[in-house]
Design brief:
single chain; 139 residues; 75% helix; mainly alpha
Length: 139
């Protein structure tokens, strides 16, 4: 049997328990929601909006040449790649959002915010390794 079929078979066997675990975790988290936690999560979500991220990349481009411009370019390329992969997977997976909406183009898995945060952190840490703890924690 080809390796790809073995991997696919293993993934299918594991998917049911993982989906059960995922559902249990969502129910547990939703049962513990508070207004204060929702405010914090909304703030964090808005902090990662495209305007803020692009403004940050513009600031990075102003760092001493050539590192600033090169790092900003790397960030744009990396974020574009992460978004293409994430949005493609969202369409394929179609996981419902925590509020119950099921629009495939806006499905909750994989998380665009998480993918973008870690992609940007990887670029920044590559350029400024000592910033690693801050970048990875923020991501």
């Amino acid at each position: 049997m080809p390796a790809a079929l073995r991997v696919l078979g293993a993934a299918l066997l594991l998917s049911s328990p993982l989906l059960d675990l995922d559902g249990a975790m969502v129910r547990a988290l939703q049962g513990r929601r508070t207004a204060a936690a929702d405010r914090v999560m909304r703030f964090v979500t808005e902090a990662g909006n495209p305007v803020t991220v692009l403004a940050g990349i513009l600031l990075i481009s102003l760092a001493p040449p050539p590192a600033g411009v090169l790092t900003a370019r790397a960030a744009v390329v990396t974020l574009a790649s992460a978004n293409l992969a994430t949005e493609g997977l969202k369409l394929a997976v179609g996981r419902a959002r925590p509020d119950g909406s099921r629009r495939r183009a806006n499905s909750s898995f994989p998380s665009s915010h998480a993918a973008n945060a870690y992609a940007l952190a990887a670029v920044l840490v590559d350029r400024w390794p000592r910033a690693g703890p801050v970048c990875w924690s923020a991501a």
